[in-house]
Amino acid sequence: MMRTRPLKVALLGCGVVGSEVARIMTTHADDLAARIGAPVELAGVAVRRTGKVREGIDPALVTTDATALVKRGDIDVVVEVIGGIEPARTLITAAFEHGASVVSANKALLAQDGAALHAAAGEHGRDLYYEAAVAGAIPLIRPLRESLAGDKVNRVLGIVNGTTNFILDKMDSTGAGYQEALDEATALGYAEADPTADVEGFDAAAKAAILAGIAFHTRVRLDDVYREGMTEVTAADFRSAKEMGCTIKLLAICERSKDGTSVTARVHPAMIPLSHPLASVRGAYNAVFVESDAAGQLMFYGPGAGGSPTASAVLGDLVAVCRNRLNGTTGPGESAYADLTVSPMGEVVTRYHISLDVADKPGVLAQVATVFAEHGVSIDTVRQQGKDGEASLVVVTHRASDASLSGTVEALRKLDTVRGVASIMRVEGE
Amino acid sequence: MMRTRPLKVALLGCGVVGSEVARIMTTHADDLAARIGAPVELAGVAVRRTGKVREGIDPALVTTDATALVKRGDIDVVVEVIGGIEPARTLITAAFEHGASVVSANKALLAQDGAALHAAAGEHGRDLYYEAAVAGAIPLIRPLRESLAGDKVNRVLGIVNGTTNFILDKMDSTGAGYQEALDEATALGYAEADPTADVEGFDAAAKAAILAGIAFHTRVRLDDVYREGMTEVTAADFRSAKEMGCTIKLLAICERSKDGTSVTARVHPAMIPLSHPLASVRGAYNAVFVESDAAGQLMFYGPGAGGSPTASAVLGDLVAVCRNRLNGTTGPGESAYADLTVSPMGEVVTRYHISLDVADKPGVLAQVATVFAEHGVSIDTVRQQGKDGEASLVVVTHRASDASLSGTVEALRKLDTVRGVASIMRVEGE
Hints:
Two copies of one chain form a homodimer.
Chain A: E1 7-12, H1 16-27, H2 29-36, E2 40-46, E3 62-63, H3 66-70, E4 77-80, H4 88-97, E5 101-104, H5 107-123, E6 128-129, H6 141-147, E7 153-159, H7 162-174, H8 178-187, H9 196-199, H10 202-216, E8 226-227, H11 235-243, E9 246-256, E10 262-273, E11 285-292, E12 296-303, H12 307-327, E13 341-342, E14 349-359, H13 364-374, E15 379-387, E16 390-397, E17 400-401, H14 402-413, E18 418-427
Parallel strand pairs in A: 1-2, 1-4, 2-3, 4-5, 5-6, 8-10, 10-13, 10-18
Antiparallel strand pairs in A: 7-9, 7-11, 9-10, 11-12, 14-16, 14-17, 14-18, 15-16
Pathway (chains A, B): Amino-acid biosynthesis; L-methionine biosynthesis via de novo pathway; L-homoserine from L-aspartate: step 3/3; Amino-acid biosynthesis; L-threonine biosynthesis; L-threonine from L-aspartate: step 3/5
Organism (chains A, B): Streptomyces musisoli
Cofactor (chains A, B): a metal cation
């Protein structure tokens, strides 16, 4: 029953991921054809600069005119692995207009303009798939969108950025400071020359927006995601975490409120107990916990980045989109019917670990405790350490809203006896 | 764009899983309708005995005549959660003949007759989905069949039976023997009154057959799976495992041969290093590792059984099958094009931990080592312990074929100085 006319694929971008997609399309051509029900053919590869020799890719297929490629009219599927907002957005939109379905790995674009792109796909009866945009090779979008389609997801909690996990893991295991660990990550190729997108949490925030939208069947944009990077995490924070039986991870957390009417999405460093499965996620690996009503706790773990793993996800989507194409149908589109409110960070409820530098004299603890009480933040434990007239107070709270905690901290800063707030870290996963 | 005519669902079986499916279909009706694009209606529930009050289910829907229900002709989807070979097989076949798609949680049937059932589904242009048949709520069939459709899977290794994992975890943490741990599992409802299917590995073997078939795009039947239960695992085995920095798990292992032309599937207890993520899978949880060319190592973790988790998987499939139905299409069917040989256990290559009771006199080790050498099995480490004229020898081998190891053990038994072979355990996950 094999159809002989091949499905034509245009590849936009031929970097680390794109070249791997092209390679697998060639070396695994027979398997892909058998699984799809028709051969797939690489019909064109758009790059920024020609001239570079690309092993295994016919030079005649390579072009710098991506626009002409997506508008050719005979392209069945456009694979976009350029990244960034433009020209990717314009090219994807043009692809739909010219009859192609799209497979993308572009988290930034999906997080910012997912709704518009889904609408364009729907208008033209085409597919938009993007498993590779979140957590590399780990199947996550499809399980959330399809496997859990009959369940109610309440929480998604995970490590979705390999670069920062590598750095934090290094700080944890060696006692190194942030800069030292970052330097090692850069030297080993885990961090880019400009690591801002990773270490400031922009990358993880884009993934959180995508995951929250799919998990809760509502629209969550990048701007809705509270974001705090991990550049200020110190070796001292790791020592504090260890004293609590915790480590520190940069987490993406998407939660449904208790009453079910609103959701929150956030990215920030947090202490998690060593007994939590996410605590043992090492190096550049990713792992995501999903909690739902019926399924309970699920975890998905694997390599979150890299050419081959990302290509695996892209090709899985390519097979699905090609099958849909042959069947004259499309897969599930955007599901945003629930239309829930995205609440601000102030409404998030969690626990906090606060280190204060205080004067080493009687009555300080009473003053500090009073401030917490006045803001309705209940204290779980306090630890005092004094030396040479200076002292530190480490307070771990019970669950409180982020707004109450912020109010508490603001008031603490005004106390004469509080010299400074050394660190504030959320405590998750308990 | 909501279609108003509801899709009609017939539920076969209303036990722990079925009643939960019915409950969620009722309580989450609006969500399911929004996600599918049409309402779904419970059109009938087939049970063995009527009379029992089933909370939330209209008694008028309940029937003991499952055959009449699937043959009604207006049923869009049959959900089969009866289990066992018959009458499930006849009912599912009749469902296809009368125009329904099928969602099943029946691992035994799928492992035995999957090919015939897929053929029947294909002949009538209907879907056969069965995510719930393997590892409960954990999305595994869909990720293997769809997310990794562009990749080449080389190995699937996992804990796919919660009952035995509960028992082994208990033995590991308390030092209890098998019977004591089984009694506790039975008392807590983790083991059935007749635990044979679980403890003898039949349940895990059925799942291994299903996983191997999907992972390698070939047919693997239950009879192709080597199976060894865990009833002979002793407290002494756990002590030996601990000395090696290992624990013992009942594993399902499906592997592609190095040259890619054949596969093996097996279920047996094995030692795995404590550092392996599967070692920390506690209680009745399941977890499955998947290794593929491009994606690398992925892990899927979650509750492997129970009414709610299994219902979550069933409902995910129900949503997918209903969407396909509305689109007038079907999802991916059986993919067995690779048509690989399933090799016997003798060809499996792994490491072994062998405990021998030997005479405590000079020359025994030399004799034993000679037997290993004669069979081409290379020894990694040997540990001797002597007491009162008796001694034990613990041998850990390098990688060797199961046939070579069996030959070795047979020859060892014939040595006068070997009083007995106390245990043979495979060592995996290194």
